[in-house]
Hints:
Blueprint: H1 28-41, H2 75-97, H3 107-115, H4 124-138, H5 150-160, H6 163-175, E1 181-188, E2 208-215, E3 226-232, H7 239-249, H8 252-299
Helix pairs in contact: 2-4, 3-4, 6-7
Amino acid sequence: MAAGSTAINFSTPCALFPCQPLSLGFSRSSFHRHQAAKNQRRSTRRAASTPAITAKLELKPPPYPLNALEPHMSQETLSYHWGKHHRGYVENLNKQITGTELDGMLLEDIIFLTYNRGDILPPFNNAAQIWNHEFFWESMKPDGGGKPTGDLLELIKRDFGSIDTFMEEFRAAASTQFGSGWAWLAYKANRLDVGNAVNPSPADEDKKLVVVKSPNAVNPLVWDYYPLLVIDVWEARRADYISIFMEKLVSWEAVGSRLEMAKAQAAERESEERRRQEEEEKNAGDAEAVEMYLDSNSDEPEAD
């Protein structure tokens, strides 16, 4: 370890939940409704740069060697969190979903369904923790830190006033999340009607960056937000942990790429919504024209 550097060594966070008998709280009909809604939105709940993951779920390694974040995050810490906790979530979820309606679904869909409007079903914790941890690993890189650039920097300035104000809000969210949980930078592009949960920022305008925090395994996917950056806040009570993450580990390139994909997906969704609305209006007009035609025919006198 380099002199003067402080390594992040987590204490044991997010204890693994033992696998328990699964009794899903949704029916086939609710699943089909979800699939229809998903098709309409073209999977825009999916994180901006995270590829789809299908069951049987596998343990995905971080995108760098386990010692690559030293001296700022030790190999021991990363090995423990990835090799034990992250692995445990994958193994437990596979056990929970085998032979159920969730078997073979995308991980994002498992998260959305088992969040169940806040009445959380047993597989949610494992599914969301898998997704959150993968996103967390990919939010960091060796020789990270620095400052955001490009469109990301411009939106941060627009929505927070300055990069310093954003940093303060992000640090505050991380340090005030009690117990286990996460602090996020997300792109909020929805229409304030998320359908699955209470919107945490209902007064905010759409198409803007927001900082939010979430307890345990909850993540912005259930609010229909696009996650861009996350920090695991278990050790956020240590001020140096948040500073090390922001100054030495965060991958602003990954965050910027996620933002571009989020904006593209949001624009695609808007286009889909416009096309669907135009089609509905056209169909309604056609139906009205047919009805008028039938009415006019019924008014004609019958021939002798």
